[in-house]
Design a protein that fits this description.
With 252 residues, the chain is α/β, with parallel strands linked by helices. Helices cover 34% and strands 26% of the residues. A 6-stranded mixed beta sheet has the order 6-7-8-3-9-10, with helices on both faces. Strands 2-1-4-5 form a 4-stranded antiparallel beta sheet. Bound molecules: adenosine-5'-diphosphate and magnesium ion (2 copies).
Length: 252
């Protein structure tokens, strides 16, 4: 089992404090959801975990099995088993999707232990079938001209191929039609297991109809203010966030 532990995390962007003491522990074999109103720091948390240079950690710790993640460069974080699906995945011209995925897999392996081309192609074909993706997506340049739905599906393809220990999925469900949403959920559910933990950030409860999270956390004003089981997401869907604000005495 592996554990990702975030303790008292404070993060600033351009000297403005956005995260004000986030605490969160995720084990492998668990799926956690973070919900919360817009602008409360959910994406900031994802970016800070992945080491985006614009996000300055001013206090607190992030550790995987006791290893200090904050001391690692971005590529070292990926090597340590972290995977981030961006809210707005970027385009990389001149790199095919297949090449990108293969390099990412090999970056996590020792020299001399790279995945063979045959094995890679076999796994890629199988996974693209599973995700109901067009085979020509593999040879297209990364994210170039991909529709919103194709980008998200592609993030799940990357996830299933790279097999990270912990995935941070930021609004992987936004802008998806119901069929694409089901495919994305199918991929995440397929990953669920002993070697995999997931933090799914979502603005809507919708995704959680297809992925049952072990824990649901509510983020407001830069902190995790409430945690519970799947029933918490259902209550948020039905009643919004006002009752939590009242309960905790949070002003808008
Ligand atoms: P959420 O994902 O919960 O909607 P964000 O983490 O995106 O919230 O944003 C939290 C706050 O940080 C917002 O007030 C937002 O304006 C600010 N913020 C986020 N990213 C940046 C940035 N790159 N530069 C300046 N401010 C930012
Ligand atoms: Mg955010
Ligand atoms: Mg966001």
């Amino acid at each position: 089992m592996s554990t990702l532990v975030i303790k008292d995390l404070h993060v600033s962007i351009e000297d403005k404090e956005i995260l004000k003491g986030v605490n969160l522990t995720i084990n492998t074999n668990e799926i956690h959801a973070i919900m919360g109103p817009n602008g409360t720091g959910k994406s900031t948390l994802a970016s800070a975990i992945m080491g985006h240079p614009k996000y300055e950690v001013t206090q607190g710790t992030i550790e995987i099995d006791g290893e200090n993640v904050l001391e690692m460069e971005v590529d070292e974080r990926a090597k340590a088993g972290l995977f981030l699906a961006m809210q707005y995945p970027s385009e990389i011209s001149g790199v095919t999707n297949a090449d990108f995925i293969r390099s990412a897999i090999n970056a996590r392996r020792e020299e001399g232990d790279e995945i063979s081309l045959m094995k890679f192609i076999r796994e890629l074909d199988k996974t693209m079938d599973f995700l109901e993706m067009d085979q020509d997506m593999a040879q297209r340049y990364l994210n170039e001209g991909f529709s919103g739905g194709e980008k998200k599906r592609n993030e799940i393809l990357q996830l299933m191929m790279i097999k990270p220990t912990f995935a941070i999925l930021d609004e992987i469900d936004s802008g998806l039609d119901i069929d694409a949403l089901k495919v994305v959920a199918k991929g995440i559910n397929e990953m669920r297991g002993e070697g995999f933990g997931c933090l799914a950030i979502t603005h809507y409860q919708r995704l959680l109809n297809y992925i049952t999270p072990d824990q649901v956390h509510v983020m407001m004003q830069g902190r995790v203010v409430k945690s519970g089981g799947p029933e918490l997401a259902q209550r948020l869907e039905a009643e919004g966030y006002d009752w939590i604000k009242k309960e905790l005495g949070i002003e808008d």
